[in-house]
């Protein structure tokens, strides 16, 4: 039966959703095993200091990190939904895959001291980069 709609293509009326519902549910229960599962099987919303150019899909942009002015510690902020990103952060976001997150954490494990999920709520959680790498590798 033909419906007149093309399958597999996203229309302009259906924008890309910058969220991982499974991650949001896991954060609500504060269950680290469920968070790990959600990270292994779904995307993560990452704030960008500089978005990549639209005509180059290999350039995802520059990830925004927080540096504590008093200690110099660097934190990576990740979100289950772009709607949970505070307005005070740069406006750009990317929807990154589990493989991207594993590669990024592996590359910066010695620099990033902590990872915050949904830092402004509704259900914030914190983890060490090494713990997330182990969860992604499981």
Summarize the structure in short.
By secondary structure, the chain is an alpha+beta fold. The protein is 28% helix and 24% strand.
List the SSEs and their pairings:
Layout: H1 21-29, H2 32-41, E1 44-51, E2 61-63, E3 65-67, E4 74-78, E5 92-96, H3 98-108, E6 112-117, E7 125-127, H4 129-137
Parallel strand pairs: 4-6
Antiparallel strand pairs: 1-2, 1-5, 3-4, 6-7
Helix pairs in contact: 1-2, 2-4, 3-4
Detailed description of the structure:
This protein is an alpha+beta fold and 138 residues long. The protein is built from 4 helices and 7 strands; from the N terminus they run H-H-E-E-E-E-E-H-E-E-H. It has helices at residues 21-29, 32-41, 98-108, 129-137; strands at 44-51, 61-63, 65-67, 74-78, 92-96, 112-117, 125-127. The strands form 2 sheets. It has a 4-stranded mixed beta sheet with strand order 3-4-6-7. A 3-stranded antiparallel beta sheet has the order 2-1-5. It is globular and about 35 Å long. The N and C termini lie far apart (43 Å). The model has no long low-confidence stretch (mean pLDDT 88).
């Amino acid at each position: 039966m033909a419906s007149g709609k093309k399958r597999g293509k996203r229309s302009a009326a259906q924008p890309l959703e910058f969220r991982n519902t499974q991650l949001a549910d896991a954060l609500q229960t504060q269950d680290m095993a469920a968070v790990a599962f959600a990270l292994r099987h779904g995307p993560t919303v990452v704030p960008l200091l500089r978005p990549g150019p639209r005509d180059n899909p290999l350039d995802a942009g520059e990830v925004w990190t927080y540096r504590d002015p008093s200690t110099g510690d660097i934190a990576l902020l990740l979100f289950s939904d772009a709607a949970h990103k505070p307005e005070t952060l740069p406006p750009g976001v990317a929807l990154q895959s589990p493989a991207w997150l594993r590669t990024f954490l592996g590359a910066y494990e010695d620099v990033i001291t902590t990872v915050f999920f949904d830092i402004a709520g509704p259900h914030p959680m914190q983890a060490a980069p090494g713990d997330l790498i182990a969860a992604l590798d499981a």
